[in-house]
Every structure is written in C-alpha cells, then in structure tokens.
Amino acid sequence: MTAKTIPQEITTVLFDLDGTLINVDMHKFVPAYLEHLASCIDPQMPPRPFIDQMIRRTIELLDSDDGRQTNEQFYWQVIEQDLGIPAQQFRDGLDHFFRYNMELLSPLVQPLPLAAKLIQRCREKGLELVLATNPVFPRALVEARLNWGGMKTEDFSLITSFENSRYCKPNPHYFEDILAQLTCSAEQCLMVGNDTEHDLSASHLGMTTFLVDTWLIDRSPQFVADFRGSHLDLFRFLGQLPALS
C-alpha cells in the first residue's frame, strides 16, 4: 500500500460494489440480466436487439450530463423510443424479473470473505457508509448483489440505484448528489473502488480515494489514487482511521 499520511477527518466511506465488495464479471452479468429481463417484459421479443440497445444506451447514460430526470426515467424513455415498449410494460417486466428470475443470476456473483469484515470495521469506527455503485441497475438488483456477497443493506445510509440517481460515475455530479444527501463535506469522505476512472473521479471534489487493485479496472491515467492496495491492505488502512464512536 502507498505510504501516505492517513487522513484524520474521514467520517464517511463510499464503497463501490462490483469488483470491490463482490467478485463478478460484468461482461457476463449484464447480458445475462438483460436476457432474463427481456423474457419477462415480452416472452416473444428477441432478446438480442433488446440487450444491444440497452447496453448502447447505458454507455450513453454514463457519459450524460443532463440530470433533468432520474436514470430510471431515462430507461423508461429510451425503451419506448427505441423498442416501442411502454414504461408500464417495462415496470411490470422488472417486477416479474424480481419475483421469478433474479435469483438465477446469483451464481455469477462470488462473495469476498473479507468484504463483511471491511463493513464491520467501518461500523465499529462509527463511520457512515454509502454504497456508491454505478446507478444503472434497479435497487432490488443492487440489494440482491449485496446480499449474495454476504452483506446487509441496513449497514448503508445510502445506496445509489437508478431510482434515486440522476448521474453516473465518473460524472462529478454523481458525487455531488451523494454529498447533498449527507451531512458531510467531500474532504470527510473516502471513496473506495477498483476502477481508475469511475471511482477515482471522486477526487474531483476533494474526496480521498483508495484504489483496490485485486480486480483492477484500469480505464484512465487521469486520476491518481491517494492510497492503493489489496483488500487486506484496505482492511488495515481502515483500522488506522480515527474512531468516531
């Protein structure tokens, strides 16, 4: 782990989810999710055009700076425009997916034994926790991945999902919206993630960053992590933060 002075003002830890708290290959998970969702929306609909269009539009959402609607509303709009699927049919399909198909994705998520201990260490320190996963999935699927990883939703003060978010990482507005819901400043926040662009972009606002390099996604040299190391290094790092309670 990089040797730097441990920040003493941290009160809140933002955790990325995929590749940080759970081991999941999103190149397999996303198409599998969309294929199941397509069958729930319309069993007669060919899944491939739906999958391709949803992925294309998600990439567009990641780059969007609009912010006039939630990410959920963005998907309502684009599937009606692109595929002629009314928003209510999309919502009904999601509900059916949550009830009957979502658990079929659980084998694609591998728990990280140390993850629950990372959360516990933060809780013991009195730190507030945010699950800062990129909000392109519905809340129920975010919670499911967290639970499959052996963690509890009630440990987090805020969980970002497509229902409550207007931006995505790496847009600084994503982090600004989180701060607006918390009683802390950027300087009091630690962002933990495995993506050199999406997660380290939190440094734009002045957040301290820790890059977990176990399953590193190296997209961009634009940002430099304040701290970097394995999950075990992160566990030790969290132990050096001052206790708040």
From TrEMBL:
Superkingdom as given in the UniProt entry: Bacteria
GO molecular function: phosphoglycolate phosphatase activity
Gene Ontology CC terms: cytosol
One Pfam entry name: Hydrolase
Example GO BP: DNA repair
EC number: 3.1.3.18
InterPro entries (UniProt xref): HAD-like_hydrolase_sf, HAD-like_sf, HAD_sf
Pathway the protein contributes to: Organic acid metabolism; glycolate biosynthesis; glycolate from 2-phosphoglycolate: step 1/1
Protein name per Swiss-Prot or TrEMBL: phosphoglycolate phosphatase
Lineage start: Bacteria, Pseudomonadati, Thermodesulfobacteriota, Desulfuromonadia, Desulfuromonadales
